[in-house]
Amino acid sequence: MIKGCVLGIESSCDETSAAVVLNGRTVLSNIISSQIEIHKRFGGVVPEIASRNHTLIIENVVKEALDVAKITLEDVEGIAVTYGAGLQGALLVGLTFAKGLSFATGKKFMGVNHIMGHIAANYISHKDLKPPFICLVVSGGHTAIVHIKSYTSHEVLGSTLDDAVGEAFDKVARCLNLPYPGGPNIDRLAADGKNNIIFPKMLKNDKGYNFSYSGLKTAVINYLHNLEQKDEKPVIQDVCASFQSAAVDVLVKKAILACKEKNIPKLACAGGVSANSYLRKKLRENCLEEEISLYLPEMVLCTDNAAMIAAEGYIKMINGQLDGTDLNVEPSLRI
Ligand code: KG4
Ligand code: ZN
Question: Ligand 1, from 303, 309, 312, 332: best to mutate by most atoms within 8 Å of Cβ?
Fold first, then answer.
């Protein structure tokens, strides 16, 4: 057995992933099998189809993760798996598979909160990062500012009152007839557009750390409808650039504010939207100006992957936070 070696499994949405990570920091393998091509024709993830495809591929993905890491199941100290939040059937595939492995081998077993996994991706990308720090969480299902107090304790300072920012990216992309997943397509098109349409920056001047994205989404839809009624065509790139700026500027402002108010000059970012190039650029500029150290996960660790689940699982393992095989999925798990 290799001490500190964790096998991670992730299947909460449309990525089937397995990874082997040493001491929560060093990735020995991180296999990600995406179902994007399967769900593209439906314009979004179809839960039942996602579960079925996880079932088909999970065994091979786990085998490949062990092979690439050049270890066997016997070598791992623990098995970590996402048990929420996510799609119920999709989560069940990974959780049940991991439970079976742990039951058969007697290995330590840790259920991981998907969002805590996203945050732990930063420990892989930045070997020197230690709590306390502030983390901006921006994914398809979550938008929050979290104070990471220690490896095992945190406080949510604020979160979205309605839609998540990634959800807003995906919905706006759909209205623009861009393929799924919308976020990366908006990112790409915005690079050639002008920020020349005024969309609301919801709660930007509000003193707290909460967010709201449903108003921004509606504003973009209304803008497109108005043009359609006048028989005019939108400049897609400009809509993308203007929406992106409205969505991102609020995130950056509040994340920096949290660092200043809490007197913690360390900011990390987590979740799929942290791959957004405009967000990364704005965070870099603002953190430089405010003398805040910025920690961005490398691109492959921004979106769903099992290495981040193994990293968080390691923290739980060394702190004795083990689970039993009675653990069930929690589709609406919060942080
Ligand atoms: O963290 P993630 O992979 O899954 C969840 O846990 O939700 O996040 C997926 C979200 C999607 O909404 C996707 O459109 C968005 O992250 N996303 C992006 C970019 N890459 C992924 N949004 C904006 N710009 C990107 N480059
Ligand atoms: Zn995710």
Answer: 303
